[in-house]
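Listing S7. Sequence submitted for prediction.
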Amino acid sequence: EVQLVESGGGLVQTGGSLRLSCVASGDTIADYAIGWFRQAPGKEREEVSCSGIDGRTQYSDSVKGRFTISRDSAKNTVYLEINNLEPEETAVYYCAANVGEPHCRYYDMDYWGLGTRVTVSS
């Protein structure tokens, strides 16, 4: 069983950037696909990015070119760099781990962190 703790959220102005961290403990991230998701007020949780165990990465169309997911195996941590932020991207950002599949489909994720809140001000 893996535990996930997100950090790095906060208040940022429109156009600003943050680096979110997902620190795993209890198991190695090498055995999991790790995804980042976000949930804005009144909206469904959506997949933002995925880091597969095969080294491939995926991004939603809305963030492609602006967000970057990466792994630091030595620190057992997955990062999400979020750039050129807009107010509508205010949300709680979650990381999640999938032990059974190499992908990051929301319904299939097995372990979730509690999230880190990102607020983008205009």
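Caption to Listing S7: primary sequence and predicted structure tokens for the chain studied. Residues 85 and 103 are 25 Å apart (CA to CA). The mean pLDDT is 95.
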